[in-house]
Design goal:
The chain is mostly helical and about 200 residues long. It folds into two domains: about 100 residues, Serine Threonine Protein Phosphatase 5, Tetratricopeptide repeat (Alpha Horseshoe); about 80 residues, no CATH class. It is built from nine helices and two strands. The protein has a two-stranded antiparallel ribbon. α3 packs antiparallel against α4, α6 packs parallel to α8 and α7 runs antiparallel to α8.
Length: about 200
């Protein structure tokens, strides 16, 4: 919906390709969402709310982004759309992570990963990618590497070159980061690698 207006910067975070165009597109989505008649299919409202939130995250408006993403999450949950819940949780995690709320972001990513593992294994790589980048930003390099390497294995199995490239970019960034001085983590617990027995 807005994919053509959003890219990833060197910091691996979403950024507008063209700020003015993305701002206009998000305003149009918000207007469409507001204008939906009562009784409209909730899936359309969920999509509009989610993409409004994603666009707002990319524009740096984290408070409004979280409002729209929570709305999308509530709609997905109410309709039993577990795929939508997982996808939206990952976006909501980004809104918290970008705003500097690492502990909350980590908890949301972990929840999405757990749900993906039990309900939608085809989404595990996406959850691992988000959690891995979160851990990377927190200076938790061992956890980041574990999540991103598992993600890469899954994406290689999927055979999607774009997804593989995205994960490889995060691993490359991790390699560069580990050569820098490691800073202490404020959210180490959200990045701890869990071993299943």
């Amino acid at each position: 919906m807005l994919q053509h207006l959003i890219t990833h910067g060197e910091d691996l975070r979403m950024a507008p390709v063209d700020r003015e165009q993305l701002t206009t597109a998000v305003a149009e989505l918000r207007e469409e969402l507001q204008a939906l008649p009562e009784g409209t299919d909730a899936s359309r409202a969920r999509v509009l709310a989610r993409w409004s939130g994603i666009g707002l995250v990319s524009l740096g408006d984290y408070d409004d982004a979280r409002t729209f993403l929570r709305q999308a999450l509530d709609l997905a949950d109410a309709s039993g759309d577990t795929r939508g819940v997982i996808a939206t949780e990952l976006n909501l995690g980004d809104a918290y992570r970008y705003a500097g709320e690492a502990e909350t972001a980590g908890a949301i990513y972990r929840s999405a990963l757990d749900a993906a593992r039990t309900k939608h294994p085809d989404l595990v790589d996406f959850a691992l990618q988000h959690l891995g980048k979160h851990c990377l930003e927190q200076g938790e390099h061992e956890a980041a590497r574990a999540h991103l390497q598992e993600c890469l294995r899954l994406r290689i199995a999927k055979g999607d070159a774009g997804l593989i490239e995205s994960t490889q970019a995060a691993l490359d960034r991790l390699g560069a980061d580990t050569r820098d001085v490691t800073r202490p983590s404020a959210a180490a617990s959200s990045c701890t690698v869990r071993v299943s027995v």
